Amino acid sequence: FANIGVENTDENRRVYRHLLFTSDMIMERYISGVILFHETLIQKTDDGTNIVTLLQNRGIFPGFKVDKGVIDLLGSDGESTTQGLDDLITRCQEYYKMFCRFAKWRCVFKIRDHTPSP
Fold first, then answer.
1. Is the model's pLDDT at 59 over the cut of 90?
2. 36: buried, middle or exposed (CB in 10 Å: 19+, 13-18, 0-12)?
3. pTM for this structure?
4. Residues in CB range of 26: below 8 A, 6 or more apart
5. b/e for 7-22, b at 16 or more Cβ within 10 A?
6. Nearest Cα to 117, choosing from 72, 67, 71, 78?
7. Residue pair 7/13 in contact by the 8 Å Cβ criterion
8. pLDDT for 117
9. Cis bond upstream, residue 116 (ω within 30)
10. What residues does 104 pair with on adjacent strands?
11. Torsion from C-alpha of 31, 33, 37, 42, nearest 10 degrees
C-alpha cells in the first residue's frame, strides 16, 4: 500500500479485497482459487457478506496460507526452514471448517554446490 500512498490498515486491506472480489469483471472465468490469510477468512464486504462466501458464490475456491514464515536454519550455510508444522493438522481442520479447500505452503531451497544440505 505504501507505494500508492495508502496506509496499511486492517480496514484498508478489507476495502481492497472488497474491491477485487466484488468487481463486475468476469474474474471467475480466469481465477479458480484465491490464497487467503487468516484475517481475510473473517472479513466481510460492505454489505456484510463473508468474503469466503462471496468467492464460493462466484465459483472460486478459497484456500489459505498454512506456513508461519521462513527463518534461518541454525548451523547451516545460509539455509532456511519453514515454521508451522507443529500445529498444521489443527489449522488445516480449522480452515476446512471455514470452507477453504486448498492450502499453500512456502519452503525456500537455495541450490548451490553444498546446499540443500546432504
1. yes
2. buried
3. 0.77
4. none
5. eeeeeebbeebbeebe
6. 78
7. no
8. 60
9. yes
10. 65
11. 100
Residue pair 43/112 in contact (Cβ under 8 Å)? The answer is no
C-beta separation of 37 from 52 below 8 A:
no
Q: If you write DSSP's letter for every residue of the chain in order, what string do you get?
A: -GGGT----HHHHHHHHHHHHT-SS-GGGT--EEEE-HHHHT-B-TTS-BHHHHHHHTT-EEEEE----EEE-TTSSS-EEE---TTHHHHHHHHHHTT--EEE-------BTTBS--
Question: Per residue in 88-116, is it b (16+ CB within 10 Å) or e — as a string?
Answer: eeebeeebeeeebeebeeeeeeeeeeeee
Matching residue, cell 486492517: 10
Q: What does the block give as the cell for 106?
A: 512456502
Give me the residue spans of the domains in the chain. Answer: 2-67+85-104
In angstroms, rounded to a whole number, what is the distance separating the alpha carbons of residues 55 and 36? 11
Q: What is the mean pLDDT of residues 54-79?
A: 91
pLDDT reported for residue 116: 66
Alpha-carbon span 17 to 24, nearest angstrom: 14
